[in-house]
């Protein structure tokens, strides 16, 4: 579902990604941990085309991102074609980024109507299902300002799911939440995983990584230092840098 080969990204003279190699199989939940500034968000943003990579290759759902291959030549895709590739990917950020002037339902239906040209009725029908799935059937007509952070984040998840993504990216989805609201969001994510969604989750929630993750990647300073099953990496880290990081967060 995702394959990265020697992915590099720099901002000005700062090398942020220094050759990322990884693979995510269909249905896999990959958790990504690592210190602040190690390039976790940048990598997710590259996968989602929010940043353009400087070198290497990135495939999502079998498509080489940003290019079309003809024979042995590569052609850069036009913006419209890039948008089509992006539509296969849902992303949830630390800050929920809901449209404040739209209800929960309005937020969930916006992209299907505007981007996909779905009818209002059809989008609302699906929107109702999705809001029920994230436990917010009773908040359909509520505006973000009237929702708790946990509820807003669940709307954000429903909104991402409304485009029927093949892959869901989560960038510290619970880091901005009050502690008592973290569980309800993780529960929704866990259900999504159980239902077979392919997910990449940047998180500090080691309990979630251990319980729900199929694999765990430790990033530091723009590289993948260590990857394995969550149990192995968390209980028996092989690299000094992983050990140091875990000793601070566990
Ligand atoms: P993480 O998510 O692991 O905390 P980030 O991917 O956000 O790390 O950032 C990695 C590094 O890239 C940091 O040093 C950050 O300052 C830098 N960085 C991220 N985005 C930009 C940008 N748009 N312009 C310049 N530097 C950036
Ligand atoms: Mg980040």
UniProtKB/TrEMBL annotation:
Reactions it catalyzes: a polar amino acid(out) + ATP + H2O = a polar amino acid(in) + ADP + phosphate + H(+)
InterPro entries noted in UniProt: AAA+_ATPase, ABC_ATPase_HisP-typ, ABC_transporter-like_ATP-bd, ABC_transporter-like_CS, MetN_ABC_transporter-like, P-loop_NTPase
Keywords for the protein's UniProt record, in alphabetical order: ATP-binding, Nucleotide-binding, Transport
Domain ABC transporter residues, every copy: 2-246
SMART domains: AAA (SM00382)
Molecular function GO terms recorded: ATP binding; ATP hydrolysis activity; ATPase-coupled polar amino acid-transporter activity
Enzyme Commission identifier(s): 7.4.2.1
Family to which this protein belongs: Belongs to the ABC transporter superfamily.
Matches recorded under PANTHER family: AMINO ACID IMPORT ATP-BINDING PROTEIN (PTHR43166), PHOSPHONATES IMPORT ATP-BINDING PROTEIN PHNC (PTHR43166:SF4)
Official protein name in the record: ABC-type polar-amino-acid transporter
């Amino acid at each position: 579902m995702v394959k990265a080969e020697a992915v590099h990204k720099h901002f000005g003279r700062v090398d942020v990604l220094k050759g990322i190699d990884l693979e995510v199989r269909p249905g896999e939940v990959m958790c990504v941990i690592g210190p602040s500034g190690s390039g976790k968000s940048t990598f997710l943003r590259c996968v989602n085309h929010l940043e353009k990579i400087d070198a290497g290759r990135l495939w999502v759902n079998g498509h080489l991102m940003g290019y079309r291959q003809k024979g042995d030549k590569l052609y850069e895709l036009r913006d419209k074609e890039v948008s089509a590739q992006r539509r296969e990917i849902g992303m949830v950020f630390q800050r929920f980024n809901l449209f404040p002037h739209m209800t929960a339902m309005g937020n969930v239906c916006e992209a299907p109507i505007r981007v996909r040209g779905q009818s209002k009725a059809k989008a609302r029908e699906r929107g109702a299902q999705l809001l029920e799935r994230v436990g917010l059937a009773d908040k359909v007509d509520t505006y973000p300002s009237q929702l708790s952070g946990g509820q807003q984040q669940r709307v954000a998840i429903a909104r991402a799911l409304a485009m029927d993504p093949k892959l869901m990216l989560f960038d510290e989805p619970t880091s901005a939440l009050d502690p008592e609201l973290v569980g309800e969001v993780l529960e929704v994510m866990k259900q999504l995983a159980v239902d077979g969604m392919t997910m990449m989750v940047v998180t500090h929630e080691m309990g979630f990584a251990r319980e729900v993750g199929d694999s765990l990647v430790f990033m530091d300073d723009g590289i993948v230092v260590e990857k394995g099953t969550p149990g192995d990496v968390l209980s028996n880290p092989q690299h000094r840098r992983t050990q140091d990081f875990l000793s601070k967060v566990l």
